[in-house]
Design a protein that fits this description.
By secondary structure, this protein is α+β, with helices and mostly antiparallel strands. The chain has three domains: about 110 residues, Orthogonal Bundle (Butyryl-Coa Dehydrogenase, subunit A, domain 1); about 110 residues, Beta Barrel (Butyryl-CoA Dehydrogenase, subunit A, domain 2); about 290 residues, Butyryl-CoA Dehydrogenase, subunit A, domain 3, CATH 1.20.140. The chain has 19 helices and ten strands. A hairpin with a 2-residue loop joins strand 2 and strand 3.
Amino acid sequence: MRLSTAQDAVRDLQDSLAGWRQEGGPFSPALLARLDADEAFPAAACQALDDAGLAASYVPAGHGGRLTDFPKVVAMIRAVARHDLTVAVAHGKTFLGAVSVWVAGPSDLADRLGRQIADGAVVCWGLTERGHGSDVLAGELTGVRVPGGWRLDGEKWLINNATRGRFACVLARTSPEGGARGFTLFLVDKRQLPAGSFRCPGKIRTLGIRGADISGLSLDGAVVPDSAMVGEEGKGAETVLKALQLTRTACAALSLGALDHAIDLARQFVVDRSLYGRSLVAMPLVRDGLGRIAARLFLAEAVTIVTTRAVHVAPQEMSVLSAVCKAFVPTVASQALAEVGELLGARGYLTDTFAHGAFAKLERDHRIVEIFDGTTPVNRQMLIGQFPRLGRTYGETDHMAAQRLTALVAGAMPGLAPSSLRLTPPSGCELTLAVPGLLFSLRRRHPHDASLHALLDSVESACADVHAAMSAHRAAPGTPGPAAFRLAERYEWCVAAAACLLLLSHVRSERTVLGLRAGLQLAVEHLAGRPGDDDTFAAVAEQVLGGSVTLFTRHQETSPW
């Protein structure tokens, strides 16, 4: 089968990363471990990615780059994260910093920035401030009109690449009263600022991603021209919320890459290690653990497949799917990493004994992913605000659901159109509303598979209960209570189950079907308390030991369905 252009690009990057991983290369595990210990920026690794042209994949083709396929750029970031999360965060931040410019729509500014990024310019995103955290509408950095432009005053804090970046996309309060229409975005070129009008405080030390440039940006009388405005005056908050739908989804790449790396380490360890005179591989509990870890990867991957393709296919639903993806994927990955840590035991925490301390590093590094672009509670609160809309139309069986939603998992996609994103979906989430129809399709396709039917029955009951509870939810004044957040978490698992059902409705590969069924069993365990089948997890463990740890082949050489 002839590879697509997107698959070629991912494969070429993976091949380059494998070469750079050799001793003396910029991705050498020993080198990356030393840089982490020294809290030093991985400059050589980032330069290698620049030289390979990865930055151009962060720029839409309409603005001079190579970005036409959102799943592709997520796959490329994942490939880097599989080798080192610090590098993936440091280099991929340029996409996060620039995405607001792409969302704001075609402009001379977008074209100019696209050319600069393709030439190696680094961009950061100045959203957060001391004391305000995720509450960007509480921001105090101000923008005031002056002849020919705007004067920016204030500080952005905990900004990735603030010191190393040439450009900063900064959200400024341009109306004293603030509010939804009181903020505007500006693309600040530090090279063009008046002398003394900005400074970058020193690097902030962190538990994970120790080598990343986490710092801040202080502006004092920094005058930027009118041409630096991103989009329209007063629409900065709206643009940010839409941009977050893309960046939150892209964060899944970091979690998937970390889990890829952790499973590779776990496989290496259990194959080489013996305990009480027996190989770890021979122990049923170890095999069950490996299978469950891989099943978590499959679940996270299923959600990511659907969400990244929805950027093209259903951009109007990204406010829901991106929040689910950002809350669910890092959380499930963290749970899987904890399970890998149990398998590795002491060697998961020693830096000089096993794999240059790679697991301890990636586990520390991954903790920040749950905080990036809105914490898990922040994303769940977004879902809570949409409960009535998400729950009220559930229940009707659409016999053509699998065919109607095919584009979410396979086939050609429409072009990338970030300006098509919406702040709320027009109705409920099509993926979860399709669950009754997907169940019908799978039962008809597998009429004699009793174990599958039992799984589907549990999914049917759990999803109906969750949607009924959301439909009945009535928002109370103030912050939602704990029960609402627990319901949001259960809804995430419904989306994950729905993603597995949709993929199962289309796949043919036995390997992929097994992985999806294992993921679906975990979802049922969480939603309904129905224990999974040990034989299924043991069979998945065989796949892990054979080197197959993803729904896709390593190099994307063939479609899994």
